[in-house]
Specification:
With 499 residues, the chain is an alpha/beta fold. The protein is built from 17 helices and 23 strands. Bound molecules: nicotinamide-adenine-dinucleotide. Nicotinamide-adenine-dinucleotide binds at residues 167-171, 194, 196-197, 226-227, 231-232, 235, 246-248, 251, 254-255, 269-272, 303, 400, 402, 430, 470, 475.
Length: 499
């Protein structure tokens, strides 16, 4: 079945894409052209300029100019809100094209992932559109300063941190771009956005919408390129004030090291190895349906993915059988087929990585109950895979696989200490969930589990209104909600003496 591509999507794919720098599309200085591949067919999809160090210099200079001079720093909060709101409207108006680009570039299935991409991106932009008029400092009490007989008037100003380098991964490209741009633009920063080199298309399309919406030139610059050529140059750049990164923990570490030159601010949204804990009194139908749905969402290429499912021994056998049934029933295919529930992985390299984890699970003695192989034919497809009999020391239980592989393990000791111990037995701390009707157990575990989000009969982030981010090696800082703005603001204290 071939995708029924919108004429505008086809025209966009045919074009050779430039870099958005200072409000204009430009070729890369080195002339480098990269190809995006359709992971469902392994065929080239589109050609785009790959940014290198010289392009990053130009993009940062454009962002600096727009940050320090011109209409952006002078713009009223109401006008900034209006621009963000209009961008959300543009995203919705071009929703069909953007959805098709996500399916073709990333491989995500229309149902449900790609169908959510545009509404989520628009919702985030609208949420942040509400903020510019609400960012405020405070007045602070003060004792009289030395030598003065009256207290100084003391207040704080919230100012944009400046030029922000934003680096995003390939797994949810449009949503990632929106969640990064929203808080940066709401706070008055300017941006150099580097989307992942596997999936640049929706961000490039968004670049065109940003131009149409009327953001001043240089406020948003979009420079796809490889991590080594474009990403590293952006992180090391002395005129970048902050880097906001989403990606692997390993790259996050290298970003922290590279940011030391000018001690730029760094926020990190990194990997996860989320526990999903099922007590014997849980609503089994709903719980197991959610474990399978979320564990295989985006082919498991999802930082929140419940990849460690712990099920109480009393219900273990029927629960595992239901998860296996759900995994077997998932239709594998290209994302544009509405029946598909498992699209392709992003690349041949990711497919190999997942295969090597499955091999390591088998050699470590885990029992493969479903999947474990790639189906015949082209495309980077891999079967939804379930292991049981896993042990905490196995690599498949410790490392983030970022593929459709779930480890299911039974437990018997329901004491809070025992459950918190296995939930926290990981270097990650992004998301966790507890499935039970016991309110006391659930709330106490929510306090004991070290994760940025703990769900009770729910798994995954809350709404965009609530903070999201990681404990431990899952990151620094929070996205979403009011807290996401903190990373884009400096606080200045002003002290006024009357004498
Ligand atoms: P990755 O770290 O390889 O790449 C992410 C981005 O970083 C890409 O744009 C890449 O080009 C760039 N990059 C690579 N090396 C770089 C360098 N040295 N300097 C600067 N930039 C560099 O990650 P990935 O494999 O593409 O993405 C998957 C990872 O992202 C997973 O670990 C996943 O958990 C994580 N992730 C986290 C969240 C979250 O919100 N916590 C969300 C989605 C994905």
């Amino acid at each position: 079945m071939n995708p029924d591509i919108h004429a505008q999507t086809a025209a966009f794919l045919d074009r050779e894409h430039g870099l958005l720098i200072g409000g204009e599309w430009a070729a890369s200085r080195s002339g480098e052209i990269l190809k995006s591949i359709n992971p469902a067919t392994e065929q080239p999809l589109a050609r785009f300029a790959g940014a290198g160090p010289e392009d990053i210099d130009l993009a940062v200079a454009a962002a600096r100019e727009a940050c320090d001079h011109g209409p952006w720093p002078a713009m009223s909060p109401s006008r900034r809100s209006e621009l963000l709101w209009k961008l959300a409207e543009q995203v919705e108006a071009h929703g069909e094209i953007l959805t098709q680009l996500e399916i073709l570039d990333n491989g995500m299935p229309l149902n449900p992932a790609a169908a959510m991409a545009v509404p989520i991106a628009a919702k985030m932009l609208r949420y942040y559109a509400g903020w510019p008029s609400k960012i405020a400092g405070s007045t602070n009490p003060s004792d009289p300063r030395p030598g003065a007989d009256r207290a100084a008037l003391t207040y704080t100003l919230k100012e944009p941190v400046g030029v922000v380098g934003q680096i995003t991964p390939w797994n949810y490209p449009l949503g990632m771009a929106a969640m990064k741009l929203g808080p940066a633009l709401a706070t008055g920063c300017t941006v150099v956005l580097k989307p992942d080199e596997h999936t640049p298309l929706s961000a490039l399309y968004l670049g065109e919408l940003i131009r149409k919406t009327g953001f001043p030139p240089g406020v948003v610059n979009i420079v796809p390129g490889t991590g080594e050529a474009a990403g590293a140059s952006l992180v090391e750049h002395p005129d970048v004030d902050k880097v906001a990164f989403t990606g692997s923990t390993e790259t996050g570490r290298s970003i922290v090291r590279a940011a030391t030159g000018n001690l730029k601010r760094v926020s990190l949204e990194l990997g996860g190895k989320s526990p999903f804990i099922v007590f014997p009194d849980a609503d089994l139908d709903r719980t197991i349906a959610m474990a399978a749905h979320l564990g295989f969402f985006l082919q498991g290429q999802n930082c929140q993915c419940p990849s460690r499912v712990f099920i109480h021994e009393e219900i273990f056998e029927p629960a595992v059988e239901r998860m296996a049934e759900a995994a077997r029933a998932m239709k594998i295919g290209p994302g544009w087929d509405p029946e598909t529930r498992q699209g392709p992985l992003i690349s041949a390299a990711q497919l190999e990585r997942v295969e090597s984890y499955v091999a390591s699970g088998l050699s470590d003695g885990a029992e493969l109950i479903v999947g474990g192989a790639r189906p015949e034919g082209p495309g980077y497809f891999f079967e939804p895979t379930l292991f049981r009999g896993t042990k905490s020391e196995m690599r498949i239980m410790r490392e983030e696989i970022f593929g459709p592989v779930i480890c299911v393990q039974s437990f018997s000791d329901t004491s809070l200490d025992a459950v918190a111990a296995f939930a926290n037995d990981t270097v990650y701390g992004l998301v966790a969930s507890v499935w039970t009707r016991g309110l006391g157990t659930a709330h106490e575990l929510a306090q004991r589990i070290k994760a940025g989000v703990v769900g009770i009969n729910h798994h995954g982030s809350g709404d965009v209104f609530a903070p999201f981010g990681g404990y431990k090696e899952s990151g620094w800082g929070r996205e979403f909600g009011a807290e996401s703005l903190d990373g884009y603001l400096e606080t200045k204290t002003v002290v006024v003496r009357y004498d």
